[in-house]
Design brief:
The chain is of the alpha/beta class. The chain is about 65% helix and about 10% strand. The protein has a seven-stranded mixed β-sheet with strand order 3-2-1-4-5-7-6, with helices on both faces. Strand 1, helix 4 and strand 2 form a beta-alpha-beta unit. Helix 3 packs across helix 4. The longest helix is centred in the middle third of the chain and has 136 residues. About 20% of the residues are buried.
Amino acid sequence: MPNDLIQPDTQSLQNPGADILAPLASRSLFWRSRYLEPSSVLCHVPLLFWLTEAARPRIAVTLGVEDAVPHFALCQAVDKLGLDSLCIGFEPAAGPEAKAADLAHQVAFNEANFADFSQIVQDGTLRESIFSREHKIDLLVVNLPVTQALADELDKTWLPQLSERGIIVFLQGGEMPGYSSYLRHLTSGSNIFTCDLETRASVVFYGAEQNDRLQRLANLNGGQSGYLAARNVFARLGELHSNTAKLAFKTRESHIARKQRDEKAAELKNAQTEVAKLRTEFEKLATQYSERSEMVAKVQAESFDLSQTVTTLKEALQDSLSKHEQEVGELGEELARLQERLKCAEAERQDLEDRTAEQKGSISKSKQEAGVLREERNLLQDRLKRAETERQELEKRAAEQKDCLNERYHDIAVLGLELQAKAGEVGELTKQLASFDQELESLRRALAETEQLRDLHAERIRALENSSSWRVTAPLRKISLMIKPR
């Protein structure tokens, strides 16, 4: 089997690390992680793959699954190797002032890929419901900052649960004063393998019963050639794995950015189309506005002419009324004079009748006086007839003047109605003009907002194309275009 340890020869006994690279030649070192999320632990995924293959743990526990990369690396190795193992991820309860970790994404990924042998528990106090104390842990991965509280928890709870084959992997550490001495305390100063990349990974071979592959790695001391060679293998493959994952992240971000750019370009094109439509509508509205402005100007001119005509007619009517009132006054005075004269004539007639009555008794006195009186009576009757004729003529003239005045009043009423109708038309046109101005102002504001949105999209596209990530990934885009099948 290519993954089995070779038997040490005489040279390897003299140099314990000479053949350490042979057992490291495992395909698991070159696996790619299925769970790719930004994490400082990505560089240690090959080490976790190799440890899972070499140790073949029955129970593997990961403390800290908010960053679930190491837990899912163990699950992937168990799945690919076909091991009958149980993988458990614990996320300790948050402090009284800290916010609980959101593990919805991690739980969903676990249920979709490793639900048969993997469980994620958010509160560490529930571990008794997962496995009892009779079930020992073979591989414990600590993916949390090693504080004094965590060290006490490890000593009190987790170390007693480790089996005789137990291995502890610290992926985050150094925050606690005396962290190095704590590691030496765990193994009495030996059986520690350390790999430094973006973060430090410390493998502590805690149990005394390690298989030959692990024991040979655990027996290496710092400074030996085999120790350095093993560290270089894990470091280079870890760096390659981390860079590959980062390249995948950048490629995914580039695809997302390209998709967003295309979406923004489509939105910009739609916005430009809308702007063109708005401009066309604006031109139509401007033409309609010009036509309506001309109509309003024409109506205003006609209204002004009507106002001038009405003013002229009012002045003429006022003059006619003044003349009519003057004529009526003169006719009234003349009628009063004629009535006075009529009264005088009636008085004279009554006087003559009285005198005639008086003279009837003395007719016999003198025929000459009778003839004179008859002539005077005839003369007075003629004068009375003429006065009656003049009165009738004056009444006829007064009736004619009254009819003329009524006709002029009727003409004034007709002109007033026409003036009110024209004023109503002018008011309606004024309202339509105001409504049209409001619509035009609303369209102008909409056009301004659309142009502002178009400029904002254009600025975002320029910022995206001028961003450092766009320029950095330019060589990758060129390579992808060169190797793309035509």
